[in-house]
Request: fold
Amino acid sequence: MKKFVYMDHAATTPVKKEVLDEMMPYFSEYYGNPSSVYAFSNYSNIAIDKARDQVAKAIHAKKNEIYFTGGGSESDNWAIKGVASKYIQKGNHIITTKIEHHAVLHTCDFLAKQGFEVTYLDVDEYGLVSLEELENAITDKTILISIMFANNEIGTIEPIKEIGAIAKKHGVLFHTDAVQAVGSVEIDVNEMNIDLLSLTAHKLYGPKGTGALYIRQGVRIDPLITGGAQEKNKRAGTENIAGIVGLGKAIELAYEHLEENNSRLIELRDRLIMGIQNNIEDVRLNGHPTNRLPGNVNFCFRYIEGESLLLSLDMVGIAGSSGSACTSGSLDPSHVLLSIGLIHEIAHGSLRLSLGASNTEEDVDYVVEQLVKIVDRLRKMSPLYNKKA
Reply:
């Protein structure tokens, strides 16, 4: 069998055995609809309650502040559209950044067409937002700041606590898309002054199709999905019990072993970064060199295209990404890389490798070994590289 190295954990992760084991009974044994009145449905209600507690504890929230959704994109849509709808009498101004996930950017674009004013903040060469520019952008019409916790492409972790303090000082709600950060970073919604937080299960070894939105007690928000009384009348639809159970178990496991997992991933990440930098010329590490997610590595390789790089890596059994998973089929350069100041020619040659639980030092060395060969071969075919030579 051909060697296979999976280095796209930022796109999705495999479901851990412990998580799957916890989920299985809720497919065929405890399958009752939680909305039913008979005793059998109680098994489902108890399971949801336990998972809600597990998610709340992971981010230091209260259990009644956790609402289950269909995933991170739904949570982002609900947070932003829900606040916009509920607080329209107070103002119509939203602040975000140019490097958000499209679940945030497209939602803000949608609201802009409805008459809302949206400020898209620039970021520096590492992808960090300027706190001064953020504060200067706030007006008396600002109702929401939505800034991601950690970038899904380049891994940079934003100054969330400081952003939360600015929002609180000005009486503005603060939402963070923490899809990439949850399970990898310590999060305390109270200490960080976070009012709304989006997360999903499949980035932390849980099932796809299940997420959650944290809504601080006292924050009013209109529903996104109507038609039932589930989730305290805030999110209609029969609950995905097995998925919710999986999310609860996955987030519990992630934070039980956070320190040891991060320590191992940082070692592998830095080994991969050094291996690429020491063996391949004309490369650029994207994102902050140290203030980045433990498993994130993002490089641009000059004179070649990311698509060719990905296809060549796939041929030797390596799975990576050329940007975010949701846009990897696009031929346009990453909006994140353009926002940190890269020109199209360089941004086109991007590669994201995201490490996870299954990866080893052997995997890292194999990837470096193959990258050296692939980059050399692709550059020899590149008219841009030959012109340079």
User: Anything to note?
Assistant: The longest helix spans residues 258-279. The chain has two domains: 5-13+258-388, 17-256. The longest strand covers residues 296-301. The radius of gyration is 22 Å.
